[in-house]
Amino acid sequence: MTEDELAGAFESHRAYLHAMANRVLGSHADADDAVQEAWLRLARAGGEGIDELRGWLTTVTGRICLDVLRRRGSRPEQPLEPELWTMPGDFDPETEAVLADSVGLALFVVMDALTPAERVSFVLHDVFEMPFDAIAAILGRSTAATKMLASRARGRIRLGAPTADSHAAARGVIDAFLAASGKGDVAGLLAVLAPEVELHAGPAVFRGAQNVANRASVGAVPNAQGHPALVDGIPGVLITTDGRPFVLMAFTVEDGRIEKIRLMTAPERLAQLVPSWFGVTEA
Q1: Please, what sign has the CA dihedral across residues 50, 53, 55, 59?
Q2: Mapped to the 3 state alphabet, what secondary structure does 220-243 carry?
């Protein structure tokens, strides 16, 4: 294979590799560097002895990402660039699938709660459906140990990652809002809503604390469970009923009061954003 042919073959996999690296590393810039390093390693190898290029590149990129995580230690997760409420939908099928799962994970995962090995095993298996034996080769672990890493990561994610200090105060206000809403407590809602609060529900916008409180005092939803989320970098909540996504809420909180609430309730949109495994009980 000539160098031009090798480069062309690599380019056909670049978008996939970048999506994988970005999900593992949580940074577009770091993902760019990882993919470039994968190309350099492929160029040095010259394609000789590589039977299946995509698998080879996935393994190499996974190892590069693992090395990056180990070198840099813990740092806050960076929100993905596309806004969830305005993200365009015109992608090729593979990119659309990768992006949907990546954004879904970003809703409620602070990935730095996981160890590098847990993070790699979880993302490569649960998002990219890579077999555990291949992930084990990347991590230098047994297949059984790799399965355990992914299971442990999945469990930590379902329990919810620790709330960042910068959002701790806002989380308290949001919890009070949800508690009052569940009880149908209008007075409790008014206590945490700013006078000029806005509720955005699709194209509709409702303004004013009393108006929003009346609409939010719906009472308890059967079998509902709230999951802390980071939505475009701000605190939010994913509400599930019977393990299925019901509504996604994002809150703007200032000086102890909620100034804006954004809702997403469209089932087809939530299905795109929330990973299919969420809410499924481990066997």
Answers
A1: positive
A2: CCCCEEEEEEEECCEEEEEEEECC
How far apart (Å, rounded) are the C-alpha atoms in residues 57 and 41? 9
- Report the candidate in 122, 144, 108, 106 with the shortest Cα–Cα distance to residue 69: 122
> CATH 1.20.140.160 spans which residues of the chain?
3-77+109-159
CATH architecture assigned to 3-77+109-159: Up-down Bundle (1.20)
Give the residue from 218, 215, 210 showing the smallest Cα distance to 190.
Answer: 210
Is 0.85 topped by the overall pTM?
A: no
Residue 15 dihedral angles phi and psi, to the nearest 5°: -60, -40
Comparing CA positions, the residue from 32, 87, 92, 83 lying closest to residue 61 is: 32
CATH 3.60.15.10 fits 165-273, yes or no: no
pLDDT at 16 over 70: yes
Judged on CB neighbours under 10 Å (0-12, 13-18, 19+), 139 is buried
**Digit-coded pLDDT (tens) for 91-109:** 344 544 444 444 444 444 5
Contact indicator for 32, 68 with CB cutoff of 8 Å? no
Crossing angle of helices 132-139 and 53-72, in 10° steps, is: 50
Long-range pairs for 142-151 at CB < 8 Å and ≥24 separation?
A: 146/121, 149/115, 149/117, 149/118, 149/121, 149/122, 150/118, 150/121, 150/122, 150/125, 150/126, 151/282
Q: Angle at CA 41, nearest 5°, toward 39 and 42?
A: 65
Q: What six digits make up the tokens of 276?
A: 């299919």
- Which residue from 82, 68, 161 is spatially nearest to 114, judged by alpha carbons? 161
